[in-house]
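Task: sequence design from structure.
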């Protein structure tokens, strides 16, 4: 959620120069003439930013998919790609999720129906380090649970 919101505000800022402090509580100001933009241009900024938010959530879910497979075992101990605990459907799920997100965000008909916008290329890559951080943080938590099974971290682990 934090990454998605960060990407939303970053998208608007990079496209227009309007920072988060000018977006918060802008309610009735978000109309013709706001920072020199027309109402249509502002709506387009929000459409693209919403699409960037959506794509960031899709990419973050990849990290979540790998991190949440087990409560205590590392992704290396329960490898999703080979071995007895493999799950080949993960390799199918990733491109399918990308395809659905691309259809919704890149095809003009879907843009009209869902009020989405075309995502600038850089916004496909910015969330990847956040997803990797999610996996690394969860691997660290799992290590602590394995190493110290009676610790506070182990007791609050799902």
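Answer:
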């Amino acid at each position: 959620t934090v990454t998605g919101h960060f990407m939303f505000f970053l998208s608007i800022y990079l496209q227009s120069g309007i920072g988060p402090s000018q977006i918060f509580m802008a309610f009735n100001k978000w109309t013709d003439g706001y920072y020199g933009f027309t109402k249509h241009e502002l709506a387009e900024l929000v459409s693209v930013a919403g699409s960037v938010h959506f794509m960031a959530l899709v990419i973050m879910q990849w990290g979540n998919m790998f991190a949440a497979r087990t409560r205590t075992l590392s992704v290396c101990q329960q490898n999703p790609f080979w071995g007895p605990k493999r799950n080949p459907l993960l390799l199918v799920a990733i491109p399918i999720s990308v395809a659905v997100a691309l259809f919704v965000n890149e095809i003009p008909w879907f843009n009209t129906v869902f009020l989405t916008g075309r995502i600038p290329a850089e916004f496909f890559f910015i969330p990847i380090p956040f997803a990797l951080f999610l996996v690394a943080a969860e691997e660290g938590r799992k290590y602590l649970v394995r190493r110290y099974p009676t610790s506070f971290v182990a007791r609050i682990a799902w």
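The chain has eight helices and no strands.
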